[in-house]
Structure to design on (315 residues):
């Protein structure tokens, strides 16, 4: 595996899971792999979990880690080729990326959708320049269209908590006051489609995700119906894809509540975090014994370490 930007980069789903459970059991067993290797984490956007868990994962493997918050202390970066740089941007990604690559053995990149242009976001203008011009393996730490380290951790978590071979996994849209990217839901659906779980997606009309990610996954517009018999409820807000970046609803009837959870098969509640309480999910649900958001977040170290182990073994 050279880069890790989606589920398709893993050698196989099965091998990914095996590596994950191996590093989970023996986190410090592979410290020689990262000796004298440097990982640079580039954050174009905020983060709590990804910043800490990816750093921890790299350190568990013996790597050195450098974190750069692009918006705090680095030069403002131009991302588009051909512009006359007479504005506030002092440096172009086309120089910055190979320079960063010359200091790093692996680069992690967080670059959210900017909602300025659907085409720009869905072409992954920032991530793809790192892949193309850094000369080293690149790991997506949530790009414009996917969050594969999150989806991988979600998969590991479902494997750990499932009570039947093929659980019913329901991804539900939930209200939020700000426009959020489609990366987490796109990536979750794309990842789940590689498993043999039963996947159902539920959201209000207008929140359809790109068909590139959805394929033939079932959409149930009635949230109550979707929740019936669910073993896992995966909540997430996203902004409209068709009416790109727009908030079409803030309907709190879609908040995941105790009443909604009562419709399920005693489902576990999941969310990638950060989550807005009493918008996306009630206090009662997220604090209930069925909420697995903390072990889910803890598995972010595991997914990142499995990915880095596979990359380092090929360096
Ligand atoms: C981001 C998102 O929805 O993509 C990051 C989630 C991991 N969330 C927020 O910006 C609140
Ligand atoms: N789930 C997740 O990626 O969280 P952060 O945005 O805090 O990294």
């Amino acid at each position: 595996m050279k880069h890790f930007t989606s589920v398709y980069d893993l050698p196989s789903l099965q091998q990914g899971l095996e590596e994950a459970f191996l590093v989970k059991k023996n986190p410090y067993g592979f410290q020689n792999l990262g000796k004298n290797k440097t990982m640079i984490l580039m954050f174009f956007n905020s983060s709590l979990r990804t910043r800490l868990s990816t750093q921890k994962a790299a350190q568990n493997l013996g790597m050195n880690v450098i974190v750069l918050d692009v918006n705090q202390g680095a030069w403002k970066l131009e991302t588009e080729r051909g512009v006359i740089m007479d504005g506030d941007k002092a440096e172009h990604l086309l120089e910055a990326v190979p320079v960063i690559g010359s200091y790093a053995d692996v680069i992690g990149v967080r670059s959210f959708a900017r909602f300025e242009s659907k085409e720009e976001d869905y072409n992954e203008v920032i991530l793809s320049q790192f892949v193309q011009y850094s000369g080293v393996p690149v790991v997506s730490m949530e790009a414009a269209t996917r969050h594969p380290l999150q989806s991988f951790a979600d998969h590991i978590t479902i494997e750990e908590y499932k009570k039947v071979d093929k659980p019913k996994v329901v991804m539900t849209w939930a209200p939020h006051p700000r426009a959020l990217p489609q990366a987490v839901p796109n990536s979750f659906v794309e990842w789940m489609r590689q498993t043999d779980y039963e996947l159902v997606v539920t959201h209000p009309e207008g929140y359809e995700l790109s068909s590139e990610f959805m394929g033939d996954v079932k959409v149930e517009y009635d949230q109550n119906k979707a929740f019936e018999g669910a073993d896992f409820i995966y909540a997430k807000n996203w902004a409209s894809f068709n009416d790109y970046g727009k908030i079409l609803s803030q309907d709190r009837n879609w908040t995941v509540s105790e009443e909604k959870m009562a419709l399920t098969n005693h489902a576990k509640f999941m969310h990638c975090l950060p989550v807005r309480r009493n918008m996306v999910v009630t206090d009662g649900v997220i604090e209930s014994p069925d909420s697995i958001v903390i072990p889910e977040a803890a598995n972010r170290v595991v997914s990142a370490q499995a990915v880095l182990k596979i990359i380092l073994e090929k360096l």
In short: The CA atoms of residues 155 and 192 lie 8 Å apart.
